[in-house]
Design goal:
The structure holds three protein chains of three kinds.
Chain A lengths: L1 H7 L4 H28 L1 H18 L1 H4 L16 H10 L21 H14 L8 H4 L6 H11 L1 H4 L6 E2 L5 E2 L7 H10 L14 H14 L17 H24 L9
Antiparallel strand pairs in A: 1-2
Chain B lengths: L40 H4 L1 H31 L5 E4 L3 E4 H27 L6 E4 L7 H18 L5 H13 L1 H7 L22 E3 L16 E6 L9 H8 L1 E5 L8 H6 L4 E5 L11 E3 L4 E3 L6 E3 L5 E4 L8 E2 L1 E3 L5 E3 L16
Antiparallel strand pairs in B: 1-2, 4-5, 5-6, 6-7, 7-12, 8-9, 9-10, 10-11, 13-14
Helix pairs in contact in B: 2-3
Chain C lengths: L1 H4 L6 H13 L1 H8 L3 E2 L7 H20 L8 E3 L11 E3 H11 L4 H28 L8 H23 L4 H15 L5 H9 L8 H31 L3 E2 L8 E6 H26 L5 H4 L18 H9 L5 E3 L2 E3 L1 H18 L1 H9 L7 E2 L6 H21 L1 H7 L4 H40 L1 E8 L5 E6 L3 H8 L24 H14 L10 H13 L1
Parallel strand pairs in C: 4-8
Antiparallel strand pairs in C: 1-5, 2-3, 6-7, 9-10
Classes of the chains: A mainly alpha, B alpha+beta, C mainly alpha.
């Protein structure tokens, strides 16, 4: 209680209240709106599944099996849900180019419409996490500081303090989160792609996911502030040490060479 | 050890010749002595010298201007102003301006002084004689005699009783200092052997501060928990969570290789200490497909599907597991404390 | 009074100096030192980089103490940095946030302090290597070498305690590591840990305790060592490289007043200026992005500052050996790296004494050697650096893995193997290179410098014209000393009595061969060789 009253007079309080009100309105809209359209688009949905199945048999079936049951080259897609498809295909990870320790992110080859059709088809194979709506993942009005704390508890161990990424065992890695679409951040937490564990709503409610997304956007986007100057990759002491040696000591040695060098002699005249 | 003296014949010939070796016409390798001083352009051309003078004065002036700029920046830029400066990013205007102006103000004092020294001060090289560190035998003899006299006068050698008691006193007096250190901290006793966990304590989700139900924990998910009753605002929160932090994952029971692990789990939900057994970093880089968990500090790797045994890295023993069950309200609860000390190994751990 | 009779009063400055001389004896001091000679060489200024960055650290550090609260009381953050508002943190962290975001120029001073610390340690490392490779640690400078080494060693711990003070998530992880390492000490471990932290980790005491070590105890000792180090530099006079007129008995260069007053004094401002610019443009230790310490949170890429990276590497690549016997645990996986760390540093610290024992050389040396002319020492130094650098790689194995798309585990295995193999390879390769360079010097002396001019001889052969070297250059290339290798005395002495030769002496002679044997140096060109070849050239 004391905390709240202390912060009520903060200059940003009005802004926070306004943002919260906006978020509440948006959230309410988001909660109701899609359900309405879904009912109206019953036929559109089945059409999308048809289209998705065609795309699937061309692009995915060779590894995941013709019915999504999985093969030795790819896991079963039954029950992974539309969120997983939207993440995997939307970030270009799927279709995979080559086997390796980990499938990397790359430019996506499908349009969002095609991805939606694929997702609809895969979702029809078995119930799973549903692709989130903007109201679910939009970081507007979320608590950045709470997101930071959650990020440090749940995410930083693999993705680094500000989401620069890090190494895992045997060539696997946690990718950088710089400028990742909030939707994809949300879906990754929801579905746990590849070796990443999932953080389902039962243990990390939707609101907390938004807080985390807001934090990642605040500290690791092309707009993020680095008051001290060049952030050196945000990797901590290793890059700082390299910079100190190369540019710090390097510059000082260059200066020392000038200080100690003999001045040019006059040419014999 | 006379053997360590260099025999005369192994010394290189002609080394240690006196300073300013005589130029032996016969020896092409002989030291020709310091070359004659060659003048710089500033030494012979007064215009060049004046150019140097102006350059030095210009640098000192730049430094003055930079100091003015520093003060101006301090006054002008608000402390929270962020500007975009390529290629550094969105940086603090104040920090950037203060640093550059301070840097310039200092650098140009140095650059001016060095340029002055290099172009206008004499650059005639001077030789200075060196003298051996070792004292002459006369000096040494005098010191030894003085010392012997002083030592004899003190009576140290003769009056053994004084000497011995003095040594005794000097040896004992530091003990007071050591005794004073006793209250730096408590004795270890059994403190490291137990944590806050106890039978019947519910597992509280660190994210929501709510007790966890088994159905909340999905296969492939990762959750962190602390014991019921602990709060971030507690005075000893940091010290308690340093031991009690818990990592919860759910593995298909048929994938669990270790029998005891399965027994101590609840329908495949396993709870392990989050504190690495190597040197105590929180370890939670969980790979849900391999069930490996990696420590970000020193890369110890544990297999959570096989009793959390060490499969790589410097950790010496597996992660302690917390035995869990479900209480009558349907929440996950601990069935006791860890059965072994959590965190790094220590002598009394056994 | 004499002043009455004085016709002209001495200038004010002189009168002040007179006053001071009457009390401090400054004229006698100045007589010896005012025109002290310092040789010019860029590598002789590395020590100054260290001295000045140390002064900068003290100056900025004093400023920081005015705002920093060395307390671990938990407070809630209410400052301007939004992503931390409402978070619980220690007062130490909170006050560091205050310095960084609310004190004008506070961030700059913090960054100068930290950058200067990294550069101080890097400077000491390079300075130490310069002294090592030029043999400038030899008599009479062994004690000063030890002072310098102690400064490097204490600098590491001063740095570590300072790095830990803000109580952020990264440094707290480092402190946790230190506590875990202390726990591994047999018998005493748990006691030491409880006493250092005032109870269980992290407790509420360590920031205050590290603070007094960081701002008082360690820098106090270091300041004393720096003064002693400088006094000895003055007393010994600086070494210089051999050259015309530069002998073991003199020092050739510029006088302290005015040239080195301006150059060295100016260099202080240059160093300070460069570090200030670096602090303006490059962020260091952004604790706001790292967050406050919580023992249950961590970030990947958890590394110490570079000077502890070597120890970090040792800890990372060590296999997890642990022995449990009679209810006690011997944590070899932590203890062994903990022992190797000081042992590797000690190896370089005691080297001057080992070398003087092996060579039996008890004379004073004031000529800085060229590294190629001491191949065995140079090879040892390079091997040592190789081991050090490989461990630095090990300390950052996770970042090498992500940035070069390698497997963390493969890098760890690489480091495990090459910590042993790398120095051996480096030793052999360096010695070869040194001998090659000696041969080249010899060729240069005997045949002159390659001029790059190709001449066609009457019978069609193409030759490159070699220009003979000046006498100064000839002297420079032949001024180094060469010893004959030590030999064991004959097994029986002149009276036919069997001589007793100690095992240590046998070892010494063997090692001495490694320094001065035929495989370890190329004989200098002799005057006879030179004359013969030069006269031969005349016949062409």
């Amino acid at each position: 209680m004391k905390k709240l009253s202390a912060r009520r007079r903060h200059p940003l309080a009005a802004v926070v209240v306004l943002l919260l009100a906006l978020a509440a309105t948006g959230g309410l809209y988001a909660a109701f709106a899609p359900a309405g359209t879904a009912k109206a688009d019953e036929t559109a949905q089945s059409l999308a599944i048809e289209e998705g199945k065609k795309l699937y048999s061309v692009g995915c079936a060779s590894c995941h099996g013709t019915g999504g049951q999985g093969t030795s080259d790819g896991p079963s897609l039954v029950g992974v849900g539309s969120a997983a498809v939207d993440f995997q295909v939307g970030t270009g990870r799927m279709p995979a180019q080559q086997p390796g320790a980990q499938v990397p992110k790359k430019p996506t080859i499908y349009t969002q419409a095609e991805i939606d059709q694929l997702a609809a088809y895969v979702a029809s194979l078995g119930a799973g996490p549903i692709k989130p709506t903007e109201g679910q993942y939009s970081p507007d009005g979320a608590d950045i500081a709470k997101g930071g704390e959650l990020f440090r508890t749940n995410c930083a161990q693999c993705h680094n303090f500000t989401g620069e990424g890090g190494a895992l065992t045997y060539g696997k890695y946690a990718p950088s989160l710089e400028d990742v679409d909030p939707k994809h951040l949300y879906e990754a937490m929801q579905t746990g792609p590849q070796n990443m564990p999932s953080f389902p709503d039962t243990t990390m409610p939707e609101k907390e996911k938004k807080d985390i997304i807001a934090y990642v956007q605040a500290v690791n986007s092309d707009k993020s502030e680095s008051p001290g100057g060049f952030k050196l990759g945000g990797l901590g002491p290793v890059s700082e040490g390299l910079f100190g040696w190369v540019f710090g000591l390097g510059a000082l040695i260059a200066v020392a060479i000038w200080v100690a060098a003999h001045t040019a002699k006059a040419k014999k005249s | 050890m006379s053997s360590q003296e260099i025999p005369e014949e192994t010394l290189p010939a002609g080394q240690d010749t006196a300073h300013g070796a005589v130029k032996v016409a016969d020896d092409p390798f002989a030291d020709p002595g310091l070359p004659p001083h060659k003048p710089r352009i500033q030494d012979i051309d007064e215009r060049a010298a004046r150019r140097s003078e102006r350059a030095v004065a210009f640098m000192f002036t730049l430094s003055m201007l930079a100091t003015v700029g520093f003060i101006a920046s301090y006054v002008i830029f608000p402390v929270d102003k962020i500007v975009f400066i390529w290629p550094f990013g969105h940086v603090s205007a104040l920090n950037f301006a203060l640093g550059l102006t301070l840097g310039a103000a200092l650098f140009f004092i140095g650059a001016g002084a060095v340029h002055w020294a290099r172009t206008l001060m004499s650059d005639v090289e001077v030789a200075d004689e060196r003298h051996p560190m070792q004292a002459t035998p006369e000096v040494k003899a005098k010191v030894m005699a003085d010392f012997a006299a002083g030592a004899a006068e003190s009576g140290m050698g003769r009056r053994k009783l004084i000497r011995n008691t003095m040594f005794g006193a000097l040896a004992l007096v530091p003990l007071s200092g050591i005794v004073l250190l006793r209250d730096m901290g408590p004795l270890p006793e059994k403190k490291l052997r137990s944590t806050l966990w106890a039978k019947g304590l519910q597992l509280i989700n660190m994210n929501t501060n709510e007790p966890l139900r088994p159905e909340d924990v999905a296969v492939g998910s990762l959750t962190f928990a602390m014991p019921e009753g602990l709060s971030e605002h507690d005075e000893h929160f940091q010290t308690e969570i340093a031991k009690a932090a818990l990592m919860i994952v759910r593995i298909q029971p048929e994938d669990i290789k270790d029998k005891r692990e399965l027994e101590w789990s609840h329908e495949g939900i396993v709870a392990f200490s989050k504190i690495c057994t190597h040197v105590g970093c929180p370890i939670s880089l969980y790979e849900q497909q391999t069930h490996h968990v990696l420590c970000p500090c020193h890369q110890s790797t544990f297999d959570l599907s096989d009793g959390a045994r060490v499969i790589f890295g410097p950790a010496g023993h597996r992660l302690p597991q917390l035995r869990i069950g479900v209480n009558d309200k349907g929440f996950l609860e601990a069935l006791g404390d860890f059965d072994e000390p959590v965190g790094p190994a220590f002598w009394e751990r056994g | 009074m004499s002043t009455v009779t004085e016709t002209k009063k001495a200038p004010a400055g002189e009168r002040v100096a007179d006053w001071a001389d009457g009390r401090l004896g400054i004229y006698t001091l100045a007589k010896a030192n005012m025109r002290k000679i310092f040789p010019d060489h860029w590598s002789f200024m590395l020590g100054e980089v260290c001295l000045y960055s140390f002064l900068i650290i003290i100056l900025t550090g004093v400023y920081l103490t005015m705002f920093f609260h060395p307390s671990m009381n938990e407070v809630e953050y209410v400052g301007p940095y939004v992503p931390l508002q409402g978070q619980l943190m220690s007062e130490a962290f909170n006050s560091t946030m205050h310095i960084s975001f609310e004190v004008r120029g506070g961030l700059l001073i913090r960054q100068i302090h930290h950058w200067a610390a990294l550069i101080f340690l890097a400077g000491m490392f390079v300075h130490m290597m310069r002294v090592f490779f030029t043999g400038a640690f030899r008599k009479p400078r062994e004690i000063n070498w030890l002072f310098g080494f102690l400064l490097f060693f204490l600098g590491m711990f001063t740095g570590f305690t300072g790095y830990s003070l803000p109580d952020d998530l990264l440094s707290g992880t480092g402190v946790r590591f230190m506590q875990g390492a202390i726990l591994s000490v047999p018998v005493l471990g748990t006691y030491l840990s409880m006493f250092l932290f005032g109870g269980e980790f992290p407790g509420g005491d360590f920031v205050a305790r590290f603070y007094s070590a960081h701002v008082l105890l360690l820098p106090g000792i270091m300041l004393g060592l720096v003064v002693a180090h400088l006094i000895l530099v003055f007393v010994h006079k600086h070494t210089h490289f051999a050259g015309p007129g530069r002998t073991n008995n003199n020092v050739v260069g510029m006088p302290l007043l005015p040239v080195y007053m301006a150059k060295a004094g100016g260099f202080f401002f240059l160093v300070f200026g460069v570090i200030a610019v670096i602090a303006a443009i490059a962020s260091i230790n952004p604790i706001w992005a790292i967050g406050p310490y919580r023992p249950d949170q961590v970030s990947t890429g958890a590394q110490p500052d570079w000077y502890m990276g070597f120890a970090e590497g040792l800890i990372r690549v060590m296999p997890g050996w642990e022995i449990n016997l009679w209810g006690h645990t011997l944590v070899l996986g932590v203890m062994i790296p903990l022992a190797i760390f000081p042992a590797v540093l000690a190896a370089i610290a005691v080297y001057p004494f080992i070398e003087s024992w092996i060579t039996g050389d008890k004379r004073e040396h004031h000529i800085a050697q060229r590294p190629r002319n001491a191949p065995t020492r140079t090879a040892f130094g390079v091997a040592w650096i190789t081991a050090y650098m490989i461990m630095l790689v090990g300390g950052g194995n996770d970042l090498w893995a992500t940035h070069f798309h390698l497997s963390l585990n493969s890098i760890t295995w690489f480091v495990r193997i090459f910590f042993f193999a790398g120095p051996v390879i480096a030793f052999i390769a360096t010695k070869r290179i040194c001998l090659g360079l000696q041969r080249r010097d010899k060729d240069k002396v005997l045949h002159g410098r390659e001029s790059g001019i190709i001449k066609r001889l009457p019978h069609g052969e193409f030759v490159e014209v070699h220009q003979p070297l000046s006498q100064g250059e000839l002297h420079r290339l032949t001024a180094h000393e060469q010893y004959d290798a030590a030999e064991l005395p004959p097994a029986v002495d002149e009276n036919g009595v069997e001589r007793k030769i100690g095992r240590m002496e046998k070892l010494r002679v063997k090692l001495n061969k490694g320094y001065y044997g035929d495989d370890s140096q190329i004989a200098k060109p002799t005057v006879e060789e030179y004359k013969e070849i030069q006269s031969g050239h005349g016949h062409h």
